[in-house]
């Protein structure tokens, strides 16, 4: 093989280039060496059966045949050292504090725009900016109560933030169920390795939600609003509602009267204080946003504006997790917190800038291009693995609407040992920790590790054939 | 609790109970077919053995839109595997599971696992296996799953409002089914109550009792040969017979009194109380004199109306 064809190997989180084992994996690697591959495969089958029986499934949009599928689960955990986690945790908390400050600012004084740090048009011209929220106070000045920040690792101690998810981030139920599954399949490992627990996430969440009740009451009514049983993340909605002991409601279960929100119960209307909503802004209120939405609650915006109900996350957070706003987050951290960012952004080209656009068009095969408001891995181009047809199609789409895209260098995501057909092999992973903001900003150790199961693939989204792993944060 | 949650819980239970009752009904027909020269009343075309379950379930016209003959294969396919028939066993289990899925936060994990595992088990029944000797096993498994689900419900869920709505669904469905089974069988077996059956009938009556798990109870209570009059008494009036109309109405009556009081709920309670009183103070002689068939038909109708009232009073989505 000519030497220029050999790509530099990605950083593997277990095995050093020289074959040695990183300290975080010492115990696990010994155990893995001793176990027969057949046993692992057996456990893998067990896990699949259990997931099907438990009905832990997601729906794939555009797939007519199977309404529900289990998400592929890998029985080999991803292990993070206490030190790595400390950095990720501090970085995520810092980022969320800055993003909440940013949201408060743009819906009130707009200092960051006045200071010229972010172009005004970038914010007020953004489709996700909601003028309806200007000057409307929200309890605790918290907008993004629940956030998922996608973090990737490229070498032993370099992490990048890929994107912030501040609208209705999903996947946390897999974090919890994966852990339960691992404890069921490999109880012996939990005695041997000091793994930080994640089970308390629903408590963090419900505590955070109760803390933002607009009413002074000892027992605020908190509900989870789902689009319904046919939504791809429905399992998660039902699971979280159950774990938190709150009602799972659909739009038709709620109504607004005198700018207050009530739910219809067998004993008549009951007042609702906090709504953990898993419906996007566009669909939340047909009177204010999309009139054709049958998922939302007519008039709910008026209740928010009157200060009678708290939506988590608040309306209008989308402007802060947009991929074109993402590039300004390090500046926000400096501006609002006076701190240096703990986690770096991936260098990002904004195709609205002519120089960046020219560079990206000339170097498309080396870059990753994303839609500014895309999510779930849809509408994304991975240059190095794209066919020439995909490249030329994408080139046309970019030229037609450059503002709609950003581009980033293809990162060499770290890999973790993963059970595949041929045995145990390295596969690329990312990490989504979940951050809850209530009285304080809190985070469950770990998060959801997503793994690209195809060899060499960098796309970890479940909708695109990715799987998940349990994430172990070592306590020492 | 949410009206829509109550609605789903109630229907979850009804559909599961319906799957069990359909299995019971088909099982008894299947067993009767195994008897030597199982008879067909020559003047009753609808009483051809496999046509009976169609009449009992009230699905005969839907069936004849799809099939010509009530053959073993056709009837079993229609009532066991066809998912486009919402009252077939797999259709009922599918509907039960869909309802459970919509409120899985409101039921315990054990209940959800039980209902989901049942659905997975019966989702892919190969229709070709229906005529093999295994069909009896299949009915047994449906019954077993239903027992399991009921047990898990009683044993794991809070005995709160959600539980009451689940039980309400179970007993309304069961009352309806027992009345239907008894009516149709009685009609075929003994068009006139004064008729005296032969040895053949003994098996038929035995099969009817078994289909509602009442054979052993009959023996224990009456210590007598099987007499149609006593069968009717057992399945209609005995309060201690778990699938009798009286026992079902007893449960329904009690449950309605446990539900939160509301203006519309009053009418449901009144109706249920009236139906209950008729069973509580009724005498089998009077029922038979005024016509058993008429009595049962009326009961099925009243149960249907009661179901509609439950819908209106508790699940209506109007504010």
Quaternary organisation of the protein chains: heterodimer
How would you characterize the largest beta sheet of chain A? 5 strands, mixed
* C-alpha-based Rg of chain A, rounded: 23 Å
Large-scale geometry of chain B? globular
How helix-rich are the residues of chain B, as a percent range?
over 70%
Pick out its properties.
heterodimer, A: about 475 residues, alpha+beta, 5-stranded mixed sheet, 23 strands, globular, disordered N terminus, B: about 325 residues, mainly alpha, 15 helices
Describe this structure in words.
The complex is a heterodimer of chains A (476) and B (319). Chain A has 16 helices and 23 strands. Chain A has helices at 26-34, 37-54, 82-106, 111-114, 120-124, 172-185, 187-192, 201-210, 234-244, 281-284, 300-305, 318-321, 323-326, 329-337, 354-362, 388-400; strands at 57-58, 69-70, 73-80, 146-155, 158-165, 222-225, 247-249, 254-257, 260-265, 268-271, 274-277, 310-312, 344-345, 349-350, 367-371, 380-382, 405-409, 415-420, 423-432, 434-437, 441-443, 448-452, 466-473. Chain A has a 5-stranded mixed β-sheet. A 5-stranded mixed β-sheet of chain A has the order 13-5-4-20-21. A 4-stranded parallel β-sheet of chain A has the order 7-6-11-12, covered by helices on one side. The longest helix of chain A has 25 residues, at 82-106. Chain A is globular and about 65 Å long. The two termini of chain A are 43 Å apart. Chain B has 319 residues and is mainly alpha-helical. Chain B has 15 helices and no strands. The longest helix of chain B has 31 residues, at 3-33. The model of chain B has no long low-confidence stretch (mean pLDDT 86).
């Amino acid at each position: 093989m000519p030497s220029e064809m050999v790509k530099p190997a990605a950083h593997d989180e277990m095995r050093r280039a020289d074959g040695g084992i990183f300290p975080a994996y010492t115990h696990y690697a010994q155990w893995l060496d001793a176990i027969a591959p057949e046993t692992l495969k057996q456990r893998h089958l067990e896990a699949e059966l259990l997931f099907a029986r438990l009905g832990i499934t997601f729906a794939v949009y555009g797939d007519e045949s199977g309404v529900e599928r289990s998400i592929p689960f890998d029985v080999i955990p991803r292990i993070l050292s206490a030190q790595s986690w400390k950095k990720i945790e501090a970085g995520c908390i810092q980022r969320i504090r800055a993003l909440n400050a940013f949201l408060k600012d743009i819906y009130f004084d707009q200092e960051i725009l006045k200071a010229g740090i972010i172009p005004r048009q970038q914010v007020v011209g953004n489709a996700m900016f909601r003028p309806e929220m200007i000057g409307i106070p929200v309890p605790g000045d918290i907008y993004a109560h629940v956030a998922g920040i996608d973090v990737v690792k490229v070498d032993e101690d370099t992490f990048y933030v890929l994107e912030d998810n501040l609208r209705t981030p999903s996947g946390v139920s897999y974090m919890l169920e994966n852990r339960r599954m691992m404890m069921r399949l490999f109880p012996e490992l939990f005695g041997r390795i000091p793994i930080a627990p994640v089970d308390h996430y629903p408590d963090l969440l419900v505590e955070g939600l109760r803390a933002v009740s607009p009413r002074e009451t000892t027992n605020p009514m908190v509900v989870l609003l789902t689009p319904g049983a046919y939504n791809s993340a429905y399992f998660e909605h039902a699971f979280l509602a159950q774990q938190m002991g709150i009602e799972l409601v659909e739009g038709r279960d709620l109504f607004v009267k005198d700018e207050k929100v009530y739910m219809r119960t067998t004993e008549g209307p009951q007042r609702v204080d906090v709504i953990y909503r898993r419906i996007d802004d566009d669909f939340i209120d047909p009177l204010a946003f999309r009139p054709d939405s049958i998922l939302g609650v007519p008039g709910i915006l008026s209740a928010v504006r009157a200060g009678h109900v708290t939506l988590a996350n608040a309306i209008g957070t989308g402007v802060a997790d947009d991929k074109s706003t993402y590039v300004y987050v390090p500046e926000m951290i400096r501006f609002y917190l006076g701190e240096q960012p703990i986690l770096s952004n991936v260098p990002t080209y904004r195709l609205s800038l002519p120089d960046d656009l020219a560079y990206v068009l000339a170097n498309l095969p080396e870059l990753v291009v994303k839609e500014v408001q895309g999510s779930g891995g849809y509408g994304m181009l991975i240059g190095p693995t794209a066919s020439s047809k995909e490249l030329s199609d994408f080139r046309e789409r970019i030229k037609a609407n450059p503002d709609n895209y950003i581009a980033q260098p293809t990162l060499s995501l770290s890999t973790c040992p993963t059970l595949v057909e041929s045995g145990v092999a390295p596969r690329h992973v990312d990490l989504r920790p979940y951050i809850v903001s209530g009285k304080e900003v809190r985070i469950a150790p770990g998060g959801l590790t997503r793994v690209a199961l195809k060899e060499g693939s960098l796309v970890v989204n479940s909708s695109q054939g990715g799987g998940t792993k349990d994430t172990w944060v070592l306590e020492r | 609790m949410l009206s829509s949650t109550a609605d789903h819980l109630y229907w979850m239970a009804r559909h599961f109970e319906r799957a069990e009752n359909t299995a019971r009904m088909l099982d008894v027909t299947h067993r009767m077919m195994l008897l030597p020269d199982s008879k067909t009343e020559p003047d009753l075309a609808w009483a051809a053995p496999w046509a009976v379950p169609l009449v009992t379930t009230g699905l005969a016209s839907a069936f004849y839109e799809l099939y010509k003959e009530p053959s073993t294969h056709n009837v079993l396919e229609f009532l066991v595997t066809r998912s486009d028939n919402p009252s077939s066993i797999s259709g009922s289990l599918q509907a039960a599971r869909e309802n459970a899925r919509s409120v899985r936060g409101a039921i315990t994990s054990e209940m959800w696992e039980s209902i989901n595992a049942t659905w997975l088990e019966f989702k892919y029944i190969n229709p070709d296996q229906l005529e093999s000797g295994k069909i009896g096993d299949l009915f047994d498994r449906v019954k077993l799953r239903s027992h399991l689900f009921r047990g898990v419900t009683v044993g794991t869920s809070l005995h709160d409002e959600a539980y009451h709505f689940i039980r309400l669904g179970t007993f309304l469905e069961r009352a309806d089914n027992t009345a239907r089974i008894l009516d149709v069988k009685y009609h075929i077996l003994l068009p006139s109550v004064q008729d005296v059956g032969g040895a053949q009938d003994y098996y038929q009556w035995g099969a009817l009792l078994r289909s509602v798990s009442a054979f052993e109870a009959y023996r224990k209570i009456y210590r007598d040969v099987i007499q149609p009059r006593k069968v009717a008494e057992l399945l209609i009036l005995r309060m201690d017979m778990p699938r009798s109309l009286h026992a079902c109405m007893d449960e329904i009556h009690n449950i309605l009194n446990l539900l939160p009081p509301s203006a519309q709920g009053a009418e449901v309670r009144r109706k249920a109380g009236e139906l209950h009183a008729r069973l509580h103070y009724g005498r089998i002689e009077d029922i038979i004199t005024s016509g058993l068939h008429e009595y049962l038909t009326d009961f099925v109708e009243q149960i249907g109306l009661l179901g509609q009232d439950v819908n209106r009073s508790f699940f209506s989505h109007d504010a």
